[in-house]
Amino acid sequence: PVLVVDFGAQYAQLIARRVREANVYSEVVPHTATVEEIVARQPAAVILSGGPSSVYADGAPQLDARLFDHGIPVFGICYGFQAMAGALGGTVTHTGTREYGRTQLSVDGGVLHEGLPATQPVWMSHGDAVTDAPAGFEVTATSAGAPVAAFEDRARRLAGVQYHPEVLHSPHGQQVLSRFLRDIAGIAPTWTAANIAEDLIEQVRTQVGDGQAICGLSGGVDSAVAAALVQRAIGDKLTCVFVDHGLLRAGEREQVQQDFVASTGARLITVDAVDTFLGELDGVSDPETKRKIIGREFIRSFEGAVSEVLGEAAEHGGAVDFLVQGTLYPDVVESGGGTGTANIKSHHNVGGLPEDLQFKLVEPLRLLFKDEVRAVGRALGLPEEIVARQPFPGPGLAIRIVGSVNQERLTLLRHADSIVREELTAAGLDGQIWQCPVVLLADVRSVGVQGDGRTYGHPIVLRPVSSEDAMTADWTRLPYEVLERISTRITNEVPDVNRVVLDVTSKPPGTIEWE
Ligand code: XMP
């Protein structure tokens, strides 16, 4: 792999993603990893990430100069660039002038920026600057605040840049990273969806052997792709379980029961738990109570199905030892599995693991980012409706009805939601939108007029957001024509709705969901 050493500024994961976008496999390691540990992984290259603003800051992580004794190609970024310069005998000066944000870079020679514009915008964020490059390095770019803004030593396969090539504000950054990987480090771009799928299928085969496995399908991308991989690896020894809690959107049950099964050939058990869920949710309007009920009932239903599968296996003298989970790489990194800067997000997936069931976990996606999961899904032949699906919360439409949940309200919301999805897709906007919750304010009524009569109906809220990771988000500026079409259709076609409103709040302060 290419190892990205995380100096703790949240850029490391993004760098790893960009390296993979260049079709080279990459992982994040904490800056506390020793040179011995890094060398033992036999990295194709090492990338030193950004970090604190100054190498002179209190407690700034140090770079062990012995890293450069092993002939490993190294690329330094921002803090990593300065740390690299310092370790190799260059000069890093505390200049006192900070350079922050969009900056003009002047390029002069070298391989990294070859063929790119001589002056180009890049994203800077630094207080110190490299004022002398180490011996053997050619200085190939400068900026107003950085006399040495990029350097390279092709013979030793070392290079670095002061700016952040991984962020979108550095429009040529991805090319620069690719240049390093290909032209300086000499790495072949073989990390492609088809290869990934093949490797993962082989790994699952090795892990599970002759064993049997079970997988809960949520209707979402991750569990579908995980299940599809395991199905390819072990065929009918995988049983998929889908709990229909009645809180899904229009067509989603069919997607799992028909499209998923048709494209994978997987064995599927559907648990129809709609009445149980709606019964338990009756009269409940507090969001957290809804979540608790749904979580509890989900585990119950799932466990019921699991014991059936276990019983069936036992009849044939077998056992089910493995549980498939669609855990992704960001979850692994964020729960401390990959870096020193654990930034723990609360994972509020419905269900979680039934605690008293003893399974070994199969997590074929644990080293993949979301876009890679989608690419692997496509390589496995999963339909676009599943692979391109936007995130949808485990508790489903229950947390998009502000007020208590019942069948009538669900039907109404499902109808409005399907109109929104249809229109956004027809307008070609899916790619710009992270997700678009459609919310029913079930306890609010407002006066309207339709035909000759006064109406007293409910509002529907549209909440289109753009985001990279759901941690922060901005409201998406949808074209007025599209909003107009959605509004007209919802008020005409959905009974009891006489108003459509648009949520124009970013996150923070708003969350993406209304509950
Ligand atoms: P918020 O509303 O916290 O949402 O800004 C961030 C992301 O998480 C999803 N979300 C959930 N997902 N169970 C889930 O599986 C939940 O209870 C839940 N609540 C929010 C939300 O759709 C968004 O993608």
Topology:
Blueprint: E1 2-6, H1 12-21, E2 26-30, H2 35-40, E3 45-48, E4 74-77, H3 79-87, E5 91-93, E6 99-107, E7 119-126, E8 129-132, E9 138-143, E10 146-153, E11 158-161, H4 173-184, H5 193-208, E12 212-217, H6 221-234, E13 238-244, H7 252-264, E14 267-272, H8 274-281, H9 287-315, E15 320-324, H10 329-337, E16 360-362, H11 370-379, H12 384-387, E17 401-402, H13 407-426, E18 438-441, E19 446-450, E20 453-462, E21 465-466, E22 474-475, H14 480-493, E23 497-502
Helix pairs in contact: 5-6, 5-11, 6-11, 8-9, 13-14
This protein binds xanthosine-5'-monophosphate.
Xanthosine-5'-monophosphate is lined by residues 291, 348-350, 391, 393-395, 435, 470, 507, 511-513.
Enzyme class: ligase
GO molecular function: GMP synthase (glutamine-hydrolyzing) activity
Pathway: Purine metabolism; GMP biosynthesis; GMP from XMP (L-Gln route): step 1/1
Write a brief structural summary.
With 515 residues, the protein is an alpha/beta fold. The chain has 14 helices and 23 strands.
- Overall tally of domains: 3
Number of strands: 23
| Strands side by side in the biggest sheet | 2-1-3-4-11-10-9-6-7
First and last CA, distance:
41 Å
> Structural class from helices and strands?
alpha/beta
* CATH C-level of the largest domain: Alpha Beta
Number of helices: 14
CATH architecture of the largest domain, by name, is 3-Layer(aba) Sandwich
The CATH H-level homologous superfamily of the largest domain:
HUPs
Kindly state the mean pLDDT as a whole number?
A: 92
